Each structure stands twice: as C-alpha cells, then as structure tokens.
Amino acid sequence: MAEEVARLLGGRYRLLSPMRRGDTGIVWRAHDSRLRRDVAIKEVHAGLQSNELDLARARRRALREARAAGRLSHSSIITVHDLLEERGRLWIVMELLEALTLQETVKHVGALPAHWTAWIGFQLLSGLRHAHSEGVLHRDINPGNILLTGDRVVLADFGIAALNGDASYSSGIPMNCTPAYTAPERLRGGPVSPAADLWSFAACLYFAVEGRPPYTGPDAVAVIAQAMTTDPPSPKKAGPLRPVIESLLHPDPARRLTGDHAALLFTEILRHEGIPMAPYRLPAVKLPPDAFTK
C-alpha cells in the first residue's frame, strides 16, 4: 500500500488514499500536481480468464468506460479527465466527488421518502436522457453506480456501456450486470436499448423507496428466474411515484414510459410536493454551423 501511495502516475497524479473498492477496481483519491487539484482515479482490475489475468478484457473495459463517459457533458454524469496505462495497469482519472452511493445511503438510513426519491429520479433521468441522446447506453445502472453528494445525483461506472455503431454490444445475455437491476428482455438475450436502461433506472427508484430491489432471492439464479417469469410486486411506499415506477418496470419494453414522458411526470410530482425544479424543456434544436452567416 505504501508503495502504491508513493507512485506518481503519468508524471502528474499522486495517489493519496483508497476511497472505494469494487468488483472492477479501486477508486483512489489523488492529486493532480499539474493543475493543483484533487481528483479520483479508478484503478481497473483485470479479471481471471483460465486462471490468468485477462489484461485485454480489462483494457477494453477501461477504454469503453473512459470513451463513453468522456463524450458526455452533464452534471448528473461523472466527468472523466484522463486515461492512463502504466506497468500493465489501467487508470481512469475522474472528477472527485465526496459522495455516498444510493446503495450506501439506503443501508445507513433505510428506505427513502417518496419525495426524496422523486428528486433523485428527476436528476438522474436528466443525465440518462442526455447519455441516450448522445448514443450512449449505460447497461449497468444499479444503486452502487449512483452517487449522491447532497446537491447532485451522479451516474458513474460506464464500464460496460454500449455506443452507437458498436455492433458487438447490440444483444446477448449480459455477463457483468447486476441481475436484480437488469431488464428482463436483456436477461433473455435481447438487444440493449434505452428502454432497458429505463427499466434499470426504475428498479433503482424501487430500491430507494422500498429498501430492496424489485426481485429478491438467495442467489442470482433465483433472481433471474423471477425476473423472467413474473411481474415485480407493486411498490407499497412509493406514493405518487408508484405509477411511474410500475410503468417503467413493465416487462414489455414497447409499453414502458419514454424518458421524455417520465421527465414530465417527475416535474409534476415535484411541483405538487412543493420542491422547486427548473421546468422541463425539449432538447434544443441543433443548427448547422453556418446558420447565422447566410
């Protein structure tokens, strides 16, 4: 540990202390000596393939995460600053957030009130709609990837994101996702889509108000069996969020709410609860570069 902390990455980033450990790596607090600011750096771990470190797969995952998040600019999506490869390890440099995940928050304080969850959902959906408009599908939205800072809700970990034009991620049974937060059509090997991301998003809101995911079981196999054969039980503590969550969790992706429609409903719920929010606006029309010079 002392040797790692003493290292200077890329001639500018000094590791200070580990912040969070996950299945895919360690997130470090670090200092950027060039810009004189603290940052977060994710050290991407290589998994095992035939009892050997699968460095190629780890490299692909790190590149995908950095490229997916790096093409997005939104306050509800983690900002990626840099990507490094040193001594066979991959490091993703990101903005530093003092935050708890939604998973940690519910663990510490219990199920959240419906109006808190509505505010979280509104912010998160804004970032998710931005990602979809830029051709990025997250594919692994779960409470451990949602960061709460107090005034921001931030979606992180784009490690298995799919980008428009990447045919290799159009379909197939997901191997790295959290089953309880994965849309049923994806568990059947169906294509990735914005609707599948919205199902996962709604499952996180279900978790926030109920304190548990829509499907539970002793292991992943039991959870997958439930998700593929039964509808999730209706949330009992969701209040005005109940019809939104239930519609987004519909097993048929064609019958789910769209992101735009859900955003309108969140705006109305928050307004009714007396929580001030900027009014929903349609995306700005992109004009050609010479629109004002003709």
Fold topology:
Blueprint (H helix, E strand, L loop, with lengths): L1 H5 L1 E2 L3 E10 L2 E8 L4 E8 L3 E2 L2 E2 L1 H16 L9 E7 L2 E6 L5 E2 H8 L4 H20 L2 E2 L8 E3 L4 E3 L6 E2 L20 H4 L6 H17 L9 H10 L12 H7 L10 H14 L22
Antiparallel strand pairs: 1-2, 2-3, 3-4, 4-8, 5-6, 7-8, 9-11, 10-13, 11-12
Shape: globular
CATH C-level class of the largest domain is: Mainly Alpha
User: How many extended strands?
Assistant: 13
Structural class label: alpha+beta
Q: Helicity range of the residues?
A: 25-40%
Q: Quaternary arrangement of the chains shown? A: single chain
Low-confidence stretches: 48-52, 279-288, 290-294
Radius of gyration, in Å, reads: 20 Å
Tell me briefly what this model is:
This protein has helices at 2-6, 55-70, 102-109, 114-133, 184-187, 194-210, 220-229, 242-248, 259-272; strands at residues 8-9, 13-22, 25-32, 37-44, 48-49, 52-53, 80-86, 89-94, 100-101, 136-137, 146-148, 153-155, 162-163. The chain is of the alpha+beta class and 294 residues long. The strands form 4 sheets. The protein has a 6-stranded antiparallel beta sheet with strand order 1-2-3-4-8-7. A 3-stranded antiparallel beta sheet has the order 9-11-12. It has a two-stranded antiparallel ribbon with strand order 5-6.
Would you kindly provide a written description of the structure presented here, covering whatever features stand out?
It comes from Thermostaphylospora chromogena. The protein is of the alpha+beta class and 294 residues long. The chain has two domains: 2-94, Phosphorylase Kinase, domain 1; 100-272, Orthogonal Bundle (Transferase(Phosphotransferase), domain 1). It has nine helices and 13 strands. The strands form four sheets. The protein has a six-stranded antiparallel beta sheet with strand order 1-2-3-4-8-7. Strands 9-11-12 form a three-stranded antiparallel beta sheet. The longest helix has 20 residues, at 114-133. The N and C termini lie far apart (61 Å). The model is unreliable at 48-52, 279-288 and 290-294 (pLDDT under 50).
